[in-house]
Write a structure and sequence with these properties.
The chain has 4 helices and 3 strands. It is of the alpha/beta class. The chain has one domain: MoaB/Mog-like domain (Molybdenum Cofactor Biosythetic Enzyme, Chain A, 3-Layer(aba) Sandwich). Helix 1 links the parallel strand 1 and strand 2. It starts with a strand and ends in a 13-residue tail after the last helix.
Length: 118
């Protein structure tokens, strides 16, 4: 599986923190057998995010978006992706359960407050 990571910092000051998170996720994905594209997009606006997701979907099997859910960013990630893909924005408990299970197995904590919306 070919995976691409898109980073959406809540503010410019959070960029390094989100990049570090992306590195940890990339290591976990690699350990699980996923091939990670070397291209990682950094987006600060809704339009940039929609373009990055559309391009990533043409070259990767899975696209992960890190960040963009905080108050400072206006929660652009979930809204922009749903609009761009013309999909409803609704909670996916099964997806969140799978992520929590993976986090437990990988010994990396997963916040119970993170919404998983697909």
């Amino acid at each position: 599986m070919l995976t691409e990571i898109i980073v959406v910092p809540d503010n410019p000051g959070a960029l390094e923190s989100v990049k570090l998170s992306a590195q940890h996720v990339a290591q976990d994905l690699s350990s699980a057998g996923s091939k990670l594209r070397t291209q990682t997009s950094v987006c600060f606006t809704k339009a940039d995010l929609q373009k990055a997701v559309a391009a990533a979907l043409t070259r990767s099997n899975m696209v992960l978006i890190l960040g963009g859910l905080g108050k400072e960013s206006g929660g652009i990630a979930n809204k922009a992706v749903a609009q761009g893909l013309e999909l409803p924005l609704e909670p996916d408990d099964a997806c969140f359960a799978a992520i929590r299970e993976f986090s437990t197995t990988a010994a990396r904590p997963c916040s119970p407050k993170i919404p998983i919306l697909l």
